[in-house]
Structure formats: C-alpha cells, structure tokens
Amino acid sequence: MSEQRASERRVVIVGAGAAGDGAAEALRKTGFDGPVILVGRDRHPAYHRPYLSKQFLRGELPLDRVPLRHRNDYEKLGIEWLGERTAIGANRAESSVVLDDGRFVPFDVLVLATGGSPRWLGTVPRLDNVFALRSLDDGVALKQAMAEAQRPLIIGAGFIGAEVAASARMMGKEPLVVEVAPVPLGRALGEEMGQVYARIHRDRGVDLRTSTAITEWIPDGNRVRAVRLGDGPPEEVDLVLVAVGIEPEVALARDLELPMGVGGVLLDETLRAETGVYCAGDIAAHLHPVFGRHLRVEHWQVARKQGQAIGHAIANEPTPYHELPWFWSDQYDVNLQYLGNAAAFDQAVWRGDRDGERFSVFYLQGGRVQAVLAVNEAKTIRLSRELISRQVTVDPEALAAESSDLKELVR
Ligand SMILES: Cc1cc2nc3c(=O)[nH]c(=O)nc-3n(C[C@H](O)[C@H](O)[C@H](O)COP(=O)(O)OP(=O)(O)OC[C@H]3O[C@@H](n4cnc5c(N)ncnc54)[C@H](O)[C@@H]3O)c2cc1C
To answer: Over 80: is that where the pLDDT of 105 sits?
Structure first.
C-alpha cells in the first residue's frame, strides 16, 4: 500500500467530529488530491463540542457560532461528506466499511475517529427531563430544559458534570451534584486537586454531595420529581443530567481485530494501528514517544491535532507524533489548563497562590516533569512545554519558587 502513489489511494474517515474533520481538512491542506470520504453519524457537520457545556448552554454564544464546519465547506474542499450515516461494520479481508444504508465503502487507507458515547447508568430512568450531553442535538435539548429548571441534578462530577454545574450556577440555578468518589474531578486530577475543585464549587453555591449515590428515583408522570441519596430524605429536582463519562466507540476496531488496550485502540508512535489504518481522538491509545507508554486522552485539542497529524502522515510519510497532550476546562472564572500526562508521578510541586485560585502544579517522576496543571496561569503552561518534552531533571525547590524563570530551568 505504501508503494501506491498518495493521490491514487482512497481515504475513508469514519467519524466526522474533532479528529475526523481535522484529518480530512489536513489531507487537502497538504495537497492530497485522491478521494476522501468522511462518514459521520451526526446530522450536523463538525462543531465545537466544548461550547455545549459552557457558553452555548448559558446563552452567551448563539447556535450559529457552534459549527466548526458548514456543509458547503466539504464541497469546496472536495471531501465527500456522508452525514447522518453510520458505519455498522468493517471488513478486513475486503478493506471496506459497510454503512447503515447497506452501502459498502472500500478504502486503501482507513481513519477511525469515532469518539465516544455517553455512559448510561442502568438504574437511571429514561424520562423526559433526563439528559446526557455529547452531541449538538443533546446540547440544544439540555439548553432548552435548563432555561426552565431551577434545581438541576447532575450525576457525576467529571469535567462535563463540573462544567455544567458551573454554568447552571452562573445562570442562577441551584444545582445538586452527586458524585460517588470523595472529590470532583478526582479521576483526571487526583485527590488534592479534587479538593480544590470541591471548594471552588461549594464557595460558589453548588450543593455538591460526594461519596454518595442515588438510591431511589421518584417519578411524577414522565418526569423525575425527586431522588433519594443514600438513606436521606427525598431531594426535589426538576432536571437530570447523567455525566458519568463515555464509552469509546470501538466496534469497528474490533471488527478489524485491531489491538486493543487502555480503553481504546493501541497505536504505534505514528498513530497507526496497522499499515493503512490510523485512529485519532477519544478512541486512540497512542504510544507517546516522550512518555514511552500508551496514552488515551479524551480531550478536544488532542483529537484535533492527532487528526491533523494523520492527514499529513497519509499525504506524506508516517512519522512519530510528539505533540504533548494539552487540555483546558473553564468553570466560572477558573481556567484550568493541563499539559503532559501524569498517570505516574512521585512528587507534586505547587507554585503560586492556591487560595487565590492562581497557581500551578508540576507532577514529577524521578525528578522529571511529566505534566503541568495551571489554574488561571496559562503562561506557566507555555513556559513548561520544553521542561516536559525534553525530560530534563529539575530542582523541585526551584520549580516551587515563583521568582524562578521556568525557561532557565530547562537549561
Ligand atoms: C459537552 C462537552 C464539553 C467538552 N469540553 C471540553 C473542553 O472544555 N476541553 C477539552 O479539551 N475537551 C472537551 N470535551 C471533549 C472533546 O470534545 C472530545 O474529546 C473530542 O470531541 C473528541 O474528538 P473525537 O473526534 O475523538 O470524537 P467526537 O468529536 O465525538 O467525534 C466522533 C464522531 O464520530 C461519530 N461516529 C461514532 N461512531 C460512528 C460510526 N460507526 N459511523 C459514523 N460515525 C460515527 C460520532 O457521531 C461523532 O460525531 C468536551 C466534550 C463534551 C461532550
């Protein structure tokens, strides 16, 4: 396949979100002039999902600002966009995917960028005021319902739950947030940062209940009217958002018998699962050259950049993908940014003013910085990039001192 001229190859991209759209666009920007087919289950062309829990939900951003792409953009780019079409199977021997309208789409190169679907809890009733949040249509439905609600219940205090709680509070609602873990955002940020976020939410009036779960659902017709937490009294609520994470969409990868691990598809350093098959975004477990292990990151910029890198790799040659994972989350006036990956660390060095909500945390392993988290300190992220990518040993005391120049520490 690699001997075939680039322009003779037919590229099929399944999943037209952050990563899939990024791959399609990059192919054209790089001068690839062969056929590109972009298959997407969503009826809308790609859009900015991050707005759905923030500015769009709060009514600060109109619907027409949410799209990342318009229908005629794909035409202009010469990309065949098959919207509202699901790939329901993939055939390895025939190098094709089959769509829900029965069509077989052959490929020379396949990009899987199928993202994830909101996880659902079996005990949650599917009633009219119960929502999940992933797609634009979900976002529109939640926004309409939130406008009417006063006491929304948010199940799960991961990023989406925490952001929706913050938005609801900023809209003058009285959100009740239920989290089984002892702190919000604990899975992504650890216990200590979770405590910081618990305080951020409680100080701003969120009713955050941690280490607890819903034991009873009390309906009223087609709506949830109240829930019971543990053995407590009924809590009246008027809207429910289930925000307990995603299930990566890996059915096609399984059909193709691709290697699986870390909750997604195991990739090499060049984002390939095997010759001619790439994956990007929430399903991609990439063997990261800086960290030497497979990382799967469920964040926007990672998906976008991986998709773009794949576009370049297909048009040219696959090369190791070095970009450090980076993400952000905005809750109230608190901007969090995170660079790197600290799945393993033996020391956390704090720098700045924790109580004043302006600080950074450096996560070290063996004296080397694995990740930096910055709250209202975007500059630290920018200055720390080399510290992480060059994996030099640094002095923790110097890191902690606000007077020290982070760029100097690299040298
Ligand atoms: C409300 C919300 C807020 C967020 N906020 C932030 C944030 O502030 N910061 C941040 O870093 N990240 C944020 N994220 C996460 C970020 O949006 C995701 O990590 C990113 O969209 C993942 O990109 P992806 O391309 O892998 O998946 P997606 O963007 O989900 O795209 C996958 C697409 O594939 C389609 N698809 C799936 N299976 C098939 C199939 N078989 N056939 C055809 N199409 C298929 C899906 O319908 C979907 O459109 C947020 C996510 C949500 C939902």
So the answer is: yes
